[in-house]
Amino acid sequence: MPAEGAMLTRIRVPETAPTEMQ
């Protein structure tokens, strides 16, 4: 389940890469 891992990592460290989401 790579999709779940990527989602958890994105929500787990959203402050670390705020520019990537924006």
Walk me through this protein's architecture.
The protein has two helices and no strands. It has helices at residues 2-12, 18-21. The relative contact order is 0.17. Residues 1-22 are annotated as: Disordered.
Shape: elongated
Major pleated sheet: none
Mean pLDDT, as a whole number? 61
Strand content: under 5%
Indicate the radius of gyration in whole angstroms: 9 Å
List the uncertain runs.
Answer: none
**End-to-end gap:** 25 Å
The class by helix and strand makeup works out as mainly alpha
The H-and-E topology, N to C, reads as: HH
Total number of helices: 2
Tally the beta strands: 0
Topology of this protein?
Elements: H1 2-12, H2 18-21
Tags for this entry?
22 residues, mainly alpha, 0% strand
Compact summary:
The chain has 2 helices and no strands. It has helices at about 1-10, 20.
